[in-house]
Design brief:
Helix content: 25-40%
Number of helices: 2
Order of helices and strands: HEEH
Mean pLDDT: 76
Length: 62
Amino acid sequence: MGSESFVIATKERLGVKAKGREEIGGEGVYELRESAGPYRGILGRENGGLRVEKGYFLDDND
């Protein structure tokens, strides 16, 4: 994080490593951010274990 000029200069120094990143901010505070990727695309089939059908409810009266 830093001023807009600092973030732009850092992006220029990074060169190709900064590809896909953008300057985000306002009110004097800026940062270089990479957009978030989709959750499903990263985990694929591993996400299946998180489905509701595989859960169960506990009895609160115990």
